[in-house]
Structures are given as C-alpha cells and as structure tokens.
Amino acid sequence: MNNSKERDPNNIIELDFSKFSKDDLNRVEALGVKQKLLYRWFRFERVTEPGLDQLVFYSGARGRVPYAAYRVDRHRNGLYALVNHRTGETITKSRTLNSALNKLPDDFYYST
C-alpha cells in the first residue's frame, strides 16, 4: 500500500499559467486599433512577476479629461482579473481575456 510517508514531495511540479499567450497579445493590439478608430490614444505596458503577468492599459483623448487606466492580471491558475489601475478595485474575474476586456468601463472608450 501507498503510505503518505513513502511519497516523495520533491517530485511535484507546480504549473504556472500566468503568462499571457500570443493570442492574448494580439487581442490587445486589436484593442489599440479600436481605440485609434475612436480617435483616442492607447498605450499598454507589460509587467511580469513570478506567478503574475500584468498588462496595464492607458487610454485618453487629446484634451483636458484625465486618461483611463486599467490593468488585466493573469494569475498562476490562469484566471484573468480586470482591475481599475488607479484605485485597485477589481472589476471582474474571468477565464478568458475577451470576457475581461468586454467589461472595460465606458470611460476607457469615451470621454464623459
């Protein structure tokens, strides 16, 4: 019989699904094209840490209205979290990047 004392915990490999895929980055580039069609500037930065990959999005109009700043975190378990980058408030958590980006508030696309 297998006894828990006989098992060697050194043979456990921890999977890290925190990296954004190439398809995810293509979706972000498509978001930038959409922003340009709306006559807004768009910029994003990627921050990588062990177990966490982040994309920070900035969008704004060329006027006095402050720019919008949101962040998408991809965690070790593969979940995406859309976060307001200014306040740290989590807006949504999802299994796909598209469903997270669909929850971007209107101030990201339009000046109010």
Characterization of the model:
The chain has 112 residues and is an alpha+beta fold. Helices cover 19% and strands 32% of the residues. It is built from two helices and five strands; from the N terminus they run αβββββα. A five-stranded antiparallel beta sheet has the order 1-2-3-4-5.
Count of separate DSSP helical elements: 2
In what range is the share of β-strand residues? 25-35%
- Mean pLDDT comes to 87
The strand order across the widest sheet is 1-2-3-4-5
> CA-to-CA gap between the ends?
67 Å
Helix content: 10-25%
Give the H and E element order: HEEEEEH
Q: Rough shape?
A: elongated
Tell me the major beta sheet: 5 strands, antiparallel
Outline the low-pLDDT stretches.
Answer: none
* Overall SS class: alpha+beta
CA-atom Rg in angstroms: 18 Å
Number of strand segments: 5
In short:
The protein is built from 2 helices and 5 strands.
Summary keywords:
single chain, 112 residues, elongated, 19% helix, 5 strands, 5-stranded antiparallel β-sheet, alpha+beta, 32% strand
Write the SSE topology.
Elements: H1 22-37, E1 41-49, E2 52-60, E3 68-75, E4 80-84, E5 90-94, H2 97-101
